[in-house]
Structure formats: structure tokens, C-alpha cells
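Fill in residues.
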């Protein structure tokens, strides 16, 4: 990792009721970098994001954001501290317009709606093509861009993305990942990405953490993970290298 960590998770333990899913997971994320978390189904990837976002209370460990201890902070307080979260499902308000969806991104954070909308539209220019459309009638890829835009309205320093390519066509997936890279490059936002399409995610990422059975297994640069044939066979489903 290059630069100072703005999000740190140390030895996180979390789960659902008596079912423990995370068994001491740790990670760091610096400004302007994209980090992908991969691993087999059930390894705790989405549980990790929910714990970081405040939807699950950790049973152990510590979370820091921009130097603040947010381990037991509410989701609203984490949003105000600079943490954005885009869940895998139900990530747009289907009966609202695109413009109205973006307005909802400021419900807990003060700011000029017009100024923030203009800023988000500069980062995600395709929003202008369906600005007045009903969000629920858009394609899956377009809805994902709307969800990204709504999260950006609060000017997050860290953005958590859970399976942004879920259900998308290859073309829409490429477009969404392009937008994610632009968000990081242009805004300096740190992105923590959970993604089943590991190859595609790693191509835009700087680093990677691999989880298995709720524990850290391997971490390194995205390129080193992609180019490691053993890792490729076990965790990526194929050998191969980045072109």
C-alpha cells in the first residue's frame, strides 16, 4: 500500500447471531486506491462490507476511518465521517427519477444539492442521458451508475461496493468498472470492492485481499495476484495473466 491508510480494519470478528463469519479479518485502504476482496462463496466478503458500513456490529476488532474510531458508530455517523456504501441489491429507488435518486444521497449529509449534482455529473457524464428517467425502468448497468452517483453525493473519502457487476452484461460491466476507476482517479476516493468477477475487478485494482473461511489468506498487488498461477487456479478459476 502506498500512502497513509484512511480506512483500517484490525482483527474484525463478526457474524449473524451465534454464527460467526469473520474470524479476525484485517485490511488497510489508502486514498485514491482501489482494493478488491475476493474469495469463495461464504468466505465473509459481503459480511466484511456490512460490518465496515455499520449494518453489522462487530463482536471484536477495531475500525478506523480518517483517524476516527468508528467501530461502534452508527451507519449515519459513518456516512457523515466519509464512508459511502453501495449494496449489491435494491440499490436504487425504482419509482423515483434519476435526479431524485441523487438527491437522496444527501439525506444525512448537509450540502448544496445543485453543486453536488453538478460535480457528480462531471464524474459520471452518462447520467445526463437519462437524468429525468424513472430509475426502475433503466437497464441494470444504468441503475448501477445511478447508485454510484447517489453514493458520491455525500462526497465520501471511502466507497464500499458490493458486487457492482452482479447481473450485468459484459459491456455494462466494463462501463461500470470504468466509472469506478474514474471515481478513484479524479476524486481520490478510496474504493473497497467485493466482486465475483475477479479478473475484471483486479484489472482496475491496485491491491487485493483474498479471504477464505472468514480469515485473511493472501494479499498483494492486483497484478501479482493475477499473474500467480497457483492463486489463479484456486481463487480465480483459471490461469492467465493480464494483457
Amino acid at each position: 500500500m502506498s500512502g497513509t491508510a484512511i480506512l483500517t480494519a484490525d482483527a474484525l470478528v463478526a457474524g449473524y447471531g451465534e454464527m460467526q463469519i469473520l474470524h479476525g479479518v484485517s485490511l488497510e485502504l489508502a486514498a485514491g486506491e482501489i482494493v478488491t476482496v475476493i474469495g469463495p462463496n461464504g468466505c465473509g466478503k459481503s459480511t466484511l462490507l456490512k460490518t465496515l458500513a455499520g449494518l453489522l456490529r462487530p463482536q471484536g476488532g477495531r475500525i478506523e476511518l480518517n483517524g476516527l474510531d468508528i467501530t461502534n458508530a452508527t451507519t449515519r455517523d459513518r456516512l457523515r465521517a466519509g464512508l459511502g456504501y453501495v449494496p449489491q441489491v435494491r440499490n436504487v429507488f425504482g419509482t423515483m427519477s434519476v435526479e431524485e435518486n441523487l438527491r437522496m444521497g444527501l439525506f444525512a449529509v448537509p450540502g448544496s444539492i445543485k453543486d453536488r449534482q453538478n460535480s457528480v455529473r462531471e464524474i459520471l457524464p452518462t447520467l445526463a442521458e437519462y437524468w429525468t428517467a424513472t430509475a426502475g425502468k433503466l437497464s441494470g448497468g444504468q441503475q448501477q451508475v445511478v447508485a454510484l452517483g447517489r453514493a458520491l453525493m455525500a462526497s465520501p473519502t471511502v466507497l464500499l461496493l458490493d458486487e457492482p457487476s452482479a447481473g450485468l452484461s459484459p459491456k455494462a460491466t466494463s462501463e461500470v468498472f470504468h466509472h469506478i476507476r474514474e471515481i478513484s482517479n479524479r476524486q481520490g476516493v478510496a474504493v473497497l470492492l467485493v466482486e465475483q468477477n475477479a479478473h475484471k475487478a483486479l484489472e482496475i485494482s491496485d491491491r487485493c485481499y483474498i479471504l477464505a473461511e472468514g480469515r485473511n489468506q493472501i494479499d498483494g498487488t492486483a497484478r501479482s495476484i493475477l499473474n500467480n498461477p497457483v492463486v489463479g487456479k484456486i481463487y480465480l478459476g483459471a490461469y492467465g495473466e493480464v494483457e
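Residues 5-236 form a domain with the Rossmann fold fold (CATH 3.40.50.300).
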